[in-house]
Structures are given as C-alpha cells and as structure tokens.
Amino acid sequence: MDIARTPSTPEGNPEMADAAREPKAPATIRREDYRPFAWLVPEVSLDFDLGLESTKVVATLTVRRNPNAEASPTIRLNGDALVPVRVKVDGEATTSWAMDDDDLLVSLPGDAHQIEVTTHINPTENTALMGLFASNGMLCTQCEAEGFRRITFFPDRPDVLSTYRVRMSGPTALFPVLLSNGNLESEGEGEGGTHWAEWHDPWPKPSYLFALVAGDLIANSDTFTTMSGREVALNIWVRESDEGRTGHAMESLKKSMRWDEEVFGREYDLDLFNIVAVSDFNMGAMENKGLNVFNTKYVLADEDTATDGDFDGVEGVIAHEYFHNWSGNRVTCRDWFQLSLKEGFTVLRDQLFSQDMGSAPVKRIEDVRVLRGAQFPEDSGPLAHPIRPDSYREISNFYTATIYNKGAEVIRMMRTMAGEEAFRKGTDLYFDRHDGEAATCEDFVKAMEDGAGLDLEQFRWWYSQAGTPKVTVRLEHEGDTATLHLAQDVPPTPGQPKKQPMPIPLKLALFDRESAQHHGEQLVVLNKAEDSLSFTGFAKRPVLSINRGFSAPVSIERDIAQDDLVFLAAHDDDPFARYEALQDLVVGHLKTVVSGELDNTARDHARSAITSAIASVLADEALDDLMRGELLILPSETYLAETMLIADPGRIHAERQALRTHIGKALESEFVDLHERASSVPYSLSAEARGARKVKTQALIYLGAGNPERAADLAAAQYDAADNMTDRQGALLVLCGLQGVERTNKLIDFYNRYQGNALVVDKWFALQAGSMHPSALAHVKALADHPDFTMKNPNRVRSLYMAFAYNPHAFHAEDGEGYRLIADVILALDPINPQTAARFVPQLGRWRRIEPGRSALMRKQLERIAAAPGLSRDTHEQVSRSLD
Ligand code: B3K
Ligand code: ZN
Predict the structure, then answer these.
(1) Which one, out of 12, 174, 388, 414, has a CA that is 20 to 30 A from the CA of 398?
(2) Residue that finishes a domain, picked among 530, 560, 590
(3) Which residues are paired to 189 by β-bridges?
C-alpha cells in the first residue's frame, strides 16, 4: 500500500536513529573526503506522468550493498526542494524514512532492496532550468551536475551507474514527441487524448546523463554507417519553423562521428542518436546519452541568420557533445573534482577536430585567444583553481575556462611530448582500461604513462597547481654559440602560496636573420626553476622563436628587440609564432605607453614599427585571408589588462584606440583596397570566401577608427549589399561604434528584418551592448526596457548583460555605473536563475587588479551583493571568494 505523508525530521522519527548518523554533504565538499557510495543502484525505472504545471514521477530503484564501500543501514537519496509523496521498500509502504534537509534517508535492513518514491514537480515554475523545466511549451531536462535531484530522490553522484528504463505519458496534442536516452522500446495510445512511450538505455550511466524531452518537434533525419557497418539513425529535433536551419548541424554530426572513428578509434554504440534544440538553456549543450540537448544557438544556422563564427560554433559544439559519448559517458567521472577528465579531454578532442575541418593555424590562434581572454584572468584572480580542484561549495561554479580550456592545454602538452602516435596508444589504453567506469584524472595520467610511454611524475603538478606559469627567456650570443636561459615561476594563488616547478614543453627554432631560415624546430622541456641550453654553429646572433604553436599554456616574458619581433612577424614559418610576434609588438608598446614611460619620439617610433608590420600583413600575397584576418586583430583590452599588474582600463582603452586610429589613418587606402577586393568575392563557405568576409570587417574596424565617415559609408553599403549574416553583422558592428544616422537606420532595419528570430535578436542586443560607442552603458540601460528583453531567457540575458560586462570601456565607466548595473543584474537574476547570475560575479571579482579608484567601486558592489539576504549558494560562493 502507498503511504502519503509530509516530511518528518530524523529526530522526529525514532526508527531513524541510524539515518540521523548517516553523514551528509558538508557545506564545503573536499576531494580528499571521497568515499565510495554504500549502495549500488544497478537498475532505475522512471515513470513520468507529464504536464507543464504538474508532472508526477515514480522512481523505482533496485539497490544492493556495495561490497567495496563501508556498509550503511540507510541509503541517502539526494533531493532538492522535493517532497516524497509516497515511499515504498520492496513493494510495501514504509515509515522507515526521514528527511535530512533536502535529502531522503531510507532504512534498508537487508543487502538488496527495491525502493519506490513518488514526487510531484512543477516544470513551469522551474526558472533555474535545472531538473525538468518547461521551455516554449515543451518539457526538457538538464541534470548535470546536480539537477537529477530536482526530479526525484536519488544518489545523485557520478560514480553511481545504472541502466534506465523510462516510461512517460502525456497529452498527445501538447507533447506529440516523447524522447529519452537509449532506444525506443514501445509506444502507444492512452486514455483521454494521451499517449506514452517507453525507452531503455542499455548502457549504465550516472544520473547526470539522464534526459527526457516532450514537445511538439520535428526532426531532420539522416543515417550514419559506423566503421563496423552498423546503421545509426540520426535525428535533429527542432520546432517546425526551424527545420530549414538544421543542415549544417547534421553535416557536423556525421563528420564528428567519422572523425572520432578515424582519429581516436571510437565508434558510436547505440542504434539511435537524437539531438534536441531548446531556446531556454543555461549553457551551450549537454551530452546526455543518446539524447543530446542543445541551446538553439548551437544547432540552427543558415547564411541569412548565422555568421561564419556561428557556423564554426555549431560544428565545434556538436562535435564536443558527440565526443563526450566516449570521453564522459562510456568513461565518466568518479566525482566532480575530476570534471576536467571529461571536459578538458573533450575540449582537446573538439579543438583537434575543428583544426582538421578548417584552418589548423587559425583555429589554434582562436583557441589561444579564448584561453588568454578567459582563463588567464581566472588563473590570476580570486577564483583561481587547479584543473582538478580540491574543494568547492557549488559545483556549477566550476564549469570554468580553467577546467575546460586549461584542462585541454594540459592534455595537449602530453600529446606534444608523446607525439601523435604514442598519444593515441595512451588514449586507447585509457578507454580500454576504464570503459564502463567512473574514473579519475589520475587514471588518465597513468594510462598515458603506460600507453604513451611518458614519465609524468612531475607533470602531475599541472593537475594540482593553479596559476599561469611565467617563463622568462633570454638569449645570449658569444662566438658561434647561442645560449638560451630559461626560468619559470608559478605565481601564488588563493590557498597555494608556494609552487613547484612544472615540466613546460617549449617548441623553439633559431632563425638566421639573413636567410630567414632555421635548422629545424626542437622541443625543449623546461622542468626546473631555471635552466640554460647552448646551441652552436651560429656565427651571427640568431632570432629566437619560442613556444611555437603555443606548445605550453604559459606567459612568456622574452627579452627581445623590437626589430626581432618585426622580423618574426614577417618571416616566422610557424603561423602561431608569427601571430605572437605581432601581438608582442603591440602588447609591448601599449604596456609602456599606458604606464606613461614613453616619450613622444619613442611612441611614434613604435607606432610606425607596428604600422609597417601591419602593412606587410596586408601586402603579403602568400598569406590566406583567414590568417590575414587573425593577424590584423589587436590584442584585446582584457588581455592587455592581464599583462599589467594593476590595470587602468580607461587608459588601456584610449591607447589601444589611439593605436588603431593611427594605423587606420596611415593605411587608409590599403584598407579601402582590401575591403574592395574582399567585397568582390561571392558568398560561399569556402576558406577563401570566409577569409574575404573576415578581412572585410577587419578593414572596416580600422577605417572606423581612422576615418569614421568613410567607414560609415562603406559599412552602410556593405550592410545594404549583404547576402549573408557575416557581412551584415560585421557592418552593423562597426556602425554601432560610430555616431551618425546610419547607425540608427541600420539598427532599426536589422531589428525589423529579424524580429521574431530569437537568435538574431540576441545579436541585435549584443552588438549594442558590446559596442565601442561612448554611450554603450546608456544604451544597455534603455535596452533593458525593450519589450523583447526578459530575465527569464539566459541567451537574452547574456546577449545584453554578458556582452556589456565584457565590454571593458563600458563596464569600467569611471563613475562605477557599470559595476552598479551588473550588481543589480546579479541581485535581480539570482532568485530566477542562480547559475547564470553567478556567472557575472568574476568580472567584479577582478577588483584587486584594477586601479584604486575603480577598484574601490567594484569592491563596494561585491559587498552590496554579499549583504543581500537569501543569496543562492552559487552567487554566495563566487562573491565570498572574490572578497576574501
Ligand atoms: N557537460 C555540459 C556542461 C554542463 C554544465 C552544468 N552546469 C556540457 C559540456 O561541457 O559538454
Ligand atoms: Zn563538455
């Protein structure tokens, strides 16, 4: 018989004395406290009676004692704001259960039992978008990391693996499509206009990979034949009106499946692979087994509504989620401290895939730009953490650039040291050894040692030490010998005052100035605090090219003459190193000019050196336009700030703009010519046409600084002539930063043209919030009242406020108004969607590295947030760490 009751406390239930002793998760979770769970849950059966406002869930868990864990007389089933409507053990109602805060504790006398728990949830009220939520009339789940506990009571930890059988029923008219993980086993009609479906996933998985979708969707369907000849049905599910924009996603999926077979030997393991696009989603996408759920932003693309960058984003994220099927799902994480095991590795896999699909050097530069723009600042601020953290309070806060992007760089270094072939042996061994398991980062490193033949003893420091290592490089030349002096320093980070030296693989080459040749690239692994290496046979002082291909995620301080940088910017045969020389030239100049250390003559000299380097980039016929476009991008204000101990964002912005103006004026006719040449290339997705579009907008950006009126005319003409979103958005981006009537006209036109297309309206918000316009802050405030703005949709929130928070000149307004605005956003968003709210905190958290006036204003806003009552665990953790 079922029992229905209100929750009791352990104290209130004498039978639950044992349960009260069951340890519960402390406020701070520590890696060292990991213990295997006392119970195994080999099978789970879920029965959903679906409704937008009320969904009933009956969960049946088959449990038995875990012989490899300390025995417990109770089982702790995690919950989050759930009420257990009914609890049964072995088919009988029981009173031997109690609530311990949000968790349900059930007494289990024997070694094996069946537990059944009934809960009711309201998906419409779920604005946090974790667990089961409603989006645009459909139902959808997000369970990673701890969302499953918002659906039903469960040991919601990644080391509890179960096979899932899911039955769902609901009104056919509302939810004609019913999806879950694995294979569809049966379906049928129910009573009163309902229908049902039963899904079974044969692969044991943790609860974070569970997914359910119910809605009015249509599929773009295709098939893929795996390397062993099995046919897999592929579906990309979207709203009917979006079907025409799913072609690129489908192509990307098939390419990913083939690439993973060819490059990593990984074959897909179910007969069906479903992707669903939803418009309300906290992140990019989610790799649920056999049922990936995607933000529409990473599925929908066509030339009229998506830029070349968007096309790349779709391809990369489709690949990333698909690759998780092996690196994440077949081999999952033992606990959330191991998150980088799946995320770092999978990011590396998607980066290598994208390198193979397009221009490898350009992709590498883009990835390094992301690392420097997002991860370096994290690593040098109050939220710095190792790629395998030691503690957390809210795991959602640890889906960071460090875990993802630095995690990828760490594995990439192993690949660089081992070589591609040996690396593959290492990954093969890792997958063989740990298939079906919940593994650790240590397991990965061990497999690399055993499979790839590397000694990674000292390399393990990369997993436990936070902070971006600084490598100081000095080249001495005497007689025919060049001596390279290298020193490394890993800076102190919160909780880690002292660091050990780490192995740093540096690819280098020594160029002969006259011939512009070198005698081959070498790999040097710096594993001491200081080291020197000698190279003979150099009658003349060579030019050093180092950290080629960005072989290590470090910051290099090189004692190098401006002329040598100009030489490398023109001649280095490693595209990344060439880009880097140009960047260093600009960074070096802007650093000195911002610090006020440069007189006018020296400044003019540096500006003309940079201008002629840019001129040779424009003139170099050997360069393709994609690469030319990269070389033309000035280092970002965020990265420039990162290279300074204490940054003055106002001065950085002014000097960077002044340099851009100088270049724009000096090379005006070259940029106009470039724009004209590129404008004659017709639209296609070829590298040539994409490159043309890239340089076209770069040319307009320089002209916008050098000759705003001419730029406005050209941009308006580009906008009007555009037959694709890349050109149209590029033109509007430039116009947004300028004054004048064309700005207003084109903004109105863009909105009217795309009104109703959420992803394009997001662009419209983001272009204005991220613009160079001096009134960007005022524009953002006005846009918050626009009828299309809502705090309930994360894409829209990000398009307005994230674009603003990462727009340095607007965010760092001298009177602190930008900080106050973002603090207001955090406070307003926190009760609605804490995960998204907490994502805004790191920008304010940079206060220690900003000049004193602004720094105090930033801190004041953090204190205001900290003092607010009822903050979520997400925001509270980020704010308190930022103030510590
Ligand atoms: N694994 C998910 C991220 C989940 C984030 C939870 N806050 C997507 C991905 O990295 O592939
Ligand atoms: Zn991932």
Answers:
(1) 414
(2) 560
(3) 195
Q: Which residue has the tokens 């390397």?
A: 227
* Distance in Å, CA 288 to ligand 2 centroid: 11
CATH code of residue 352: 1.10.390.10
Domain count, the chain: 4
Closest ligand 1 atom to residue 317 Cα is 11
Strands 272-278 and 74-77: unpaired
Ligand number, closest to the Cα atom of 349: 2
Considering the domain architecture, whether residues 778 and 851 belong to the same structural domain is answered as: yes
Same domain (yes/no): 43, 183:
yes
pLDDT of residue 24: 60
* Residue 114 placed within a domain: yes
Distance CA 218, CA 214 (A): 12
442 and 487 both lie in a single domain: no
The model's confidence at residue 516, banded by pLDDT at 50, 70 and 90, is: very high
Over the Cα atoms of the chain, what is R_g? 28
Distance 513 CA to ligand 1 centre (A): 48
Q: Tell me: do 164 and 189 sit in the same domain.
A: yes
Pocket of ligand 1 (CB under 6 A): 144-145, 283, 285-287, 320-321, 324, 343, 396, 399
Q: What is the pLDDT of residues 360-395, one digit of tens each?
A: 999 999 999 999 999 999 999 999 999 999 999 999
In eight-state DSSP terms, residue 54 is: -
- What pLDDT, in 10s, does the model give residues 24-45? 666 999 999 999 999 999 999 9
- What's the CA gap between 74 and 63, in Å, rounded? 11
Contact call for residues 837 and 874 (beta carbons, < 8 A)? yes
Last residue within a domain, chosen from 430, 464, 498: 464
> Is 90 exceeded by the pLDDT of residue 1?
no
Evaluate if residue 116 carries a pLDDT over 80: yes
**Ligand 1 nearest-atom number relative to CA 343:** 10
From the alpha carbon of 145, which atom of ligand 1 is closest?
Answer: 6
Which of 144, 150, 346 to probe ligand 1 with, by most ligand atoms within 8 A of CB?
A: 144
Residues, CB within 5 angstroms of ligand 2 (ion):
343, 346
722's tokens: 């555009």
What per-residue confidence (pLDDT) applies to 23? 54
- Write down the pTM of the prediction: 0.97
In terms of residue numbers, what domain contains 790?
757-884
**How many helices (H) and strands (E) would you count in the chain?**
32, 32
CATH number at residue 63: 2.60.40.1730
Q: What average pLDDT does the segment 309-318 reach?
A: 98
